[in-house]
Specification:
A hairpin with a 6-residue loop joins strand 1 and strand 2. A 3-stranded antiparallel β-sheet has the order 1-2-3. With 88 residues, the chain is α+β, with helices and mostly antiparallel strands. The protein has one domain. The protein is built from 3 helices and 3 strands; from the N terminus they run ααβββα.
Length: 88
């Protein structure tokens, strides 16, 4: 188990790709259904913006803890994927 989670360049790259694609894909799916909501992050939405926004108002929110959770989850998934392909 320790070898699966041990940091490596390929694991970090795969995790970043999965993180970016999942957040982008989730945002597109939500925007197709609800046109004035703009989320980013999956499975935890760490950034959410909505509109139309009145001048001077803040129409977005950010949660740093959810960002950390997302990064950790996608790193574990990326490490698992790399370890599965290395066995094959």
């Amino acid at each position: 188990m320790k070898d699966v989670l041990k940091p490596a360049y390929l694991k970090v790259v795969i995790a970043f790709i999965l993180f970016a694609l999942s957040g982008w894909g989730w945002g597109l799916l939500v925007q197709m259904r609800i046109s004035d909501t703009f989320p980013f992050g999956f499975p935890f939405e760490f950034f959410l913006a909505w509109g139309p926004c009145q001048p001077g108002e803040n129409c977005s929110e950010f949660n740093g803890l959810y960002l950390v959770f997302d990064i950790l989850i996608w790193y574990v998934v990326g490490a698992w994927v790399v370890s599965r392909f290395k066995r094959l």
